[in-house]
Write a structure and sequence with these properties.
CATH superfamily: Cyclophilin-like
CATH architecture: Beta Barrel
Largest sheet: 8 strands, antiparallel
Distance between the termini: 21 Å
Helix content: 10-25%
Shape: globular
Number of domains: 1
CATH class: Mainly Beta
Number of strands: 10
Order of helices and strands: HHEEHEEEEEHEEE
Strand content: 25-35%
CATH topology: Cyclophilin
C-alpha cells in the first residue's frame, strides 16, 4: 500500500497534509534540546507513518518540554518523554498501533516508541538504542518494539546520557539519571 493510500485509509491525511504534500513528509526532522546538549532525529514516515504522526502530535503539543530521560541503561537504551523532573508521570492522551514489522531494526542510534507488554499501547515515551538491540525486533511469535527514526546529529550527546550515573527516584527503583537529563524543547525542523 502506498504511503498516501495508507494515510488516507487511517484517516490521517486530513490532519497531516493534502496528498500533494506527502513528499514533504517523507523525512521530518526534530531537534531535541536538553540540559546536557542537543541532538537531531530524522523520522521515517515511509516505514512508520502512524508512529511518526503520533510522535509529531506530541511534539506540536509541547508535551516533551520539561520531561526527562527517566530510564537509562548503559549499553542498552536511553528512554524519555514520560516523566517530569519531579518524577510526575505526564498524562498519555493517545496510543498508537504497533508498527514493529516495518523493516527497521533496533540498532545503535535508532529511535523507537516505548510501550508496556501490551503491543499496541505506546504513548509518548520514546527510546534511543545505545547499542544494537535486535532482541527488541519482532519475531514470528511476538510483537517487537517499533523503530521510527534515527539520530542523525548529536550521537555524542546520546552517548553522554547513556553513561550517566543512575539510581532510584520517585516510584522508579533504578536506571534514573542521578543528575536529571531534562528535555528543554523539541523543535520540528522540517516536514
Amino acid at each position: 500500500m502506498s504511503l498516501s493510500r495508507l494515510l488516507i485509509w487511517t484517516g490521517l491525511a486530513a490532519g497531516v497534509a493534502g496528498a500533494q504534500d506527502l513528499e514533504a513528509l517523507s523525512d521530518p526532522q526534530v531537534r531535541v534540546v536538553t540540559n546536557v546538549g542537543e541532538f537531531v532525529m530524522e523520522l521515517d514516515s515511509g516505514r512508520a507513518p502512524l508512529t511518526v504522526e503520533h510522535f509529531l502530535t506530541y511534539v506540536r503539543e509541547g508535551h516533551y518540554e520539561g520531561t526527562i530521560f527517566h530510564r537509562v541503561i548503559q549499553g542498552f537504551v536511553a528512554q524519555g518523554g514520560g516523566f517530569t523532573a519531579d518524577m510526575q508521570q505526564k498524562p498519555t492522551e493517545r496510543k498508537v498501533f504497533n508498527e514493529s514489522g516495518n523493516g527497521l531494526s533496533n540498532i545503535r542510534g535508532t529511535v523507537g516508541i516505548a510501550r508496556t507488554q501490551e503491543p499496541h499501547d505506546a504513548g509518548p515515551q520514546f527510546y534511543i538504542n545505545l547499542n544494537d538491540n535486535v532482541d527488541l525486533n519482532p519475531r514470528p511469535t511476538r510483537w517487537g518494539f517499533a523503530v521510527f527514526g534515527t539520530v542523525v546529529e548529536g550521537m555524542d550527546v546520546i552517548d553522554a546520557i547513556g553513561h550517566a550515573p543512575t539510581g532510584a527516584a520517585g516510584d522508579l527503583e533504578r536506571n534514573v539519571p542521578v543528575q536529571p537529563v531534562i528535555v528543554e524543547r523539541v523543535e520540528l525542523l522540517s516536514e
